[in-house]
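Final report, section 2: Outcomes. Of the targets proposed, Phytocyanin domain-containing protein is the one most frequently requested by collaborating groups, and we therefore present its record in full.
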Amino acid sequence: MGEAKIFLIFLIMVFLKGTVSEVYTVGDELRWNTGANFGSWSQKYNFSAGDTLVFTYGKGQHNVYEVTEATYRSCNASTGVLATYDSGNDQIQLDQTKKYWFICNVDGHCLGGMRFFIDVKEASSTNIGPTPPQREPIPPPPPAANSCTTTYVFDRWSLWVSLVAFGFLLQLSE
Ligand SMILES: [Cu+2]
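The predicted structure is given below as tokens.
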């Protein structure tokens, strides 16, 4: 019973690991700032639908524009802006499977490197290996009554030996 419970908890953990969305801080410890390499940051992770990006930065120093690919490439946000954020702590849920293109639209920041794109895939459990085959539970040890039976048999046997020996002795004495 104890083993079954542990195995069930293990299964639940595997299931949750495969489905619970991740939260990614853009730029990791460097955050959303000039000087971070967002191209390499964005390639470190496999993003899937339901994950969340968090942009943290000094409010007013930067902003976050979700843009089209063309605007990402040109760094010209006069067109092709899909969404804008400027709170300094922007949490963007990636609820679609598509490419997301982000830039900072403060002068010069996009051209200076504050831009990246990510390819958000379908949330799936393909990154989870097959669960190892569950071993058959070890059968419980045989009941302790067996030892009583053994003792009982032994006692009967020794009684029988004693009787034979006694009879033998009686025969000798005749
Ligand atoms: Cu900026």
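The two ends are 66 Å apart (CA to CA).
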